[in-house]
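Q: I'm writing a short methods note and want an example of a predicted protein-small molecule complex. Could you take the sequence and the SMILES for flavin mononucleotide and return the bound structure as tokens? Please keep the output block clean; save any remarks for afterwards.
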Amino acid sequence: MIWTNDPTRLMLVAGFGVSYALVCLAPYLRTRRKRLAAQRAKAEAAASPGWIIAYASQTGNAEELAGQTLATLKLAGIPAQLSELSELCAEDLLRAERVLFLVSTYGEGDAPDAAAAFSGRLMTQGLPLPQLHYAVLALGDSAYAHYCGFGRALDQWLQEQGAQSLFPRIEVNRSSAEAIGQWRQQLSHLAGTSDAPDWSAPAFDDWRLVERVQLNAGSAGAPVYHLELEPLDGALPAWQSGDLVQVAAPADPSRAREYSIASIPADGRVHLLVRLHTHEDGSHGVASGWLTQQAAVGQAVQLRLRQHRRFRLEDNAQRPLILIGNGSGIAGLRGHLKARALAGQGRNWLLFGERNAAHDYHYRAELDAWRRDGMLEQLDMVFSRDQPERLYVQTRLAEQAEAVRAWVAQGAAIYICGSLDGMAAGVDEALAAALGREALDDLAAAGRYRRDVY
Ligand SMILES: Cc1cc2nc3c(=O)[nH]c(=O)nc-3n(C[C@H](O)[C@H](O)[C@H](O)COP(=O)(O)O)c2cc1C
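A: Understood, no commentary inside the block.
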């Protein structure tokens, strides 16, 4: 060891010692600062009156992410509750301090059906919300003209009311894993936790295509096929009428296509109704081409079931049902009719549109049998091209406004399945004309007007 009395050298040694200590200490201090900030965030969040996770979802994506958001906050010890957007009233918002909104967009930039009243009534008012801290996760598909239209409108309205965003709106294009990852990261940051639960979607299972029949030979429309599938391992999973399947076609497994399930578990198989889609250049749709042209009967198909809570019967199982649809939309309605027949519930009115009775009367024998057995109280088949003038379900519905009012007065719920263009909007207008727009919005908010339209 070398001793020295030279003051300059002593200063240098001391200076070096202090710098060295600082260099060693810096990472520790940084980590400690971060830990304290995280603890503070957690304590503040836990002390707040509770977070609200509000979702508006049509086919369940936003709802599923809302459930995962709740699980993440709960894991971090933050009191939080899940709420459908439609359940929130002005008073709730005036009181709330932290709300996470997860909303999708439907129609042409519209809110999901259940949130129509929230969008039409609350969002047209001025509410002072300076106390509200919020974030928006907007789900959508950039192929639509009004990409994330409802999420954007909600965000803008909240800003106009003086609410403060916790972080900029995150837009999720076609369920993009990257955007969902950003949301998850923001949540972890807010909640001061790094151990968020796994959000990955369930894997696809192997099913076998066991039957395929074309239903509309000779039709003026594109070919429609009835398909039956069984799980390869024989264990039939549970589902409810109204649910969907996602099919991963070998040519594009990253973008699953969704189809309504046309059967119930008592059938022992998943039935699908698939219309072959043909592009302008003559090529077939990836999934519809695979399922109806390429996959051989007996071949394995990658499939997973998806709950579609918004289109299930749920509380409506005891109510009379008005089922309205067109084209391949008979799939989702057939699932419900099968469930009703199994439960012995005969108060069903089916109003269905296709082109020609001779070729497009899908499942005619089954519908006739239900009619005979008292499972279909009223059946209105509307064939657009069987008479000189074109006729559609919405025209028939408008003629039946009196009956619609009577059924709804008796507690009926209304289910719509089929095409958005040319059917859903017209049916919506006819229903609004029969019942009043406000009453229809109220039915939607109460889960008595449900749509699976595409
Ligand atoms: C009939 C229909 C209309 C849609 N309209 C829009 C739209 O106008 N803008 C948009 O960004 N996304 C639109 N989408 C895409 C959905 O918002 C997207 O699929 C979202 O993931 C659905 O979430 P959800 O399951 O929570 O309802 C539409 C989807 C369908 C089936």
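A: Remarks, as requested: The chain has four domains: 1-33, 48-191, 205-307, 310-453. The CA atoms of residues 381 and 439 lie 26 Å apart.
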